[in-house]
Design brief:
Length: about 280
Amino acid sequence: MYYDYAAIVGDHARGMELELKMSFWDHLEELRRRTIYCLVTVFGIAIFCFIFGLKSADIGGIKVYYPFPELYDNINTQIFNMIRNDLIRDPRIQLIPIGIADPVIVQLEISLFLGILFGMPMIVYQFGKFVSPGLYPHERAILIKTAFPATFLFALGCGFAYYIIIPFTIDFLYGFAFAMDVQPFLSLESFISFVIIFLIAYGLVFELPIVMVGLTRLGTVSAEFWAENWRYAFVAMVIFGAIVTPDGSGITQLIVAMPMMVLYVIGYIISKRVQKG
């Protein structure tokens, strides 16, 4: 890939000149302003999901969904019922509220998660606007080119966790309870926290190839570095799995770490091709 380095240096020098004109407080004010945009978006979506439900109407043979004010059967409740039906496949597993406030806490957690999920385009846009003045032109180009693949991989990771990993993990771990002939109970709050943590964790895990290829494309890290340090990377993956998984069995942390290792190999292969090209 060819870059006009004279133009790059000139653009960076102008960017540095602009940076010097901005004081620390100017940067802080810019960060505060863009953070407010993100928070307003996230909490706006979260509040909407808390006070509105989705109802359907048949218009010309086509089912159309529309929001309707509903405190109890709101979007959060509908999402929770969908998650419960999709992920808890064995009817012997009973969901129960441990504390009187558990249902409300679950509602708030789902609201916040939906706010972050659907507010992600605004978050990414504001982050890009904040960091772009300090980037080289080719770095901005790489940032733009990786936006769609990063979004796609995050969604793919969430889907992989939702349809494969989480149901398998629940069935596998509670299989021991069934074998011991005991009634398994699962609290509402721990269940939804488990699901949200796994969705976010796998969404981030699937970003690993993008990070590796991006660093190699920028010339920060060579492809050989990924090959030489795979053992340290695996240890870091196991530690990451221990941090994001809620149980201490060690099984779920390996369930997180093993796909990461596969993604690491994929990232290395693509990085090697990018470096040669």
